[in-house]
Amino acid sequence: MKRKTSISGIAAAIVTVMLIGCVASPYDQEKRGEWRWDVKTLTDVNSDAVNIADVISSSIKKQRNLIAPDKLQYNTPRFGTEFHVYKLTGKLIQYKIETDGDIHLVISSVDNDSETMITEIPDATKSPASGSKFVDYFKDAKDSLINILKRHPRHNHPDTLFWGVLYKPLKNDPIYLTITGVGFFDKIDGSIVQAPNGRELHPVLGIEETKP
After folding, report:
1. How many C-beta atoms lie closer than 10 Å to residue 83's C-beta?
2. Does residue 21 lie in a domain region?
3. Per the structure, how many domains does the chain have?
4. If we measure between CA atoms, which residue out of 196, 183, 186, 158 comes closest to residue 37?
5. Residues 42-94: pLDDT tens digits?
6. What domain range is 166 assigned to?
7. So what's the pLDDT on residue 9?
8. Nearest to 199 by CA among 16, 68, 39
9. C-alpha neighbours within 13 Å on the C-beta side of residue 2
10. 167 lies in a domain?
11. What are the residues facing 89 on neighbouring strands?
12. What sign does the dihedral 21-44-132-85 (CA atoms) show?
């Protein structure tokens, strides 16, 4: 009888460990792109203060030169320039679907391919983005991107993009975009395409193809 109790205890301990392992830690959430997720999907408590009708003309260089905040944390609330919407033009360098379903677009200054920053369109079909009152903007931005890509030979099937695959425009068929989105500071991860201050437009609210 004691032996059965011991085995049952071991089994219970294993189940407990398994359940604990299923609870996502902040570290795991960071890896899945959930770092400051409510801010970058416009579902945070301060999102109503973002005036999307007041669009500020900007540039990749200006965004990269903004002062990065000190001690940015996993749950830091929206602040400062993150209450503003910006419009800028750049050349599409690469794009892919991230682990959280967002469409990750890397753009560069028109005259400098090394001057890059990240912009992202939230996945409007998944929480928390699906619950944002701005969700229609996310849908329209994705549709606009797909229509733009369809006009270029290498990207004629953009509605079947594969998760995690990195796509790049052809050098002889560059794609120039004017992107409108909310300013956002992301965690600096050392990526060569990330702005040095972690600055992004996230979420993207609108995309147009343009000429340099």
Report:
1. 15
2. no
3. 1
4. 186
5. 999 999 999 999 999 999 999 999 998 888 999 999 999 999 999 999 999 99
6. 32-209
7. 45
8. 68
9. 0
10. yes
11. 178
12. negative
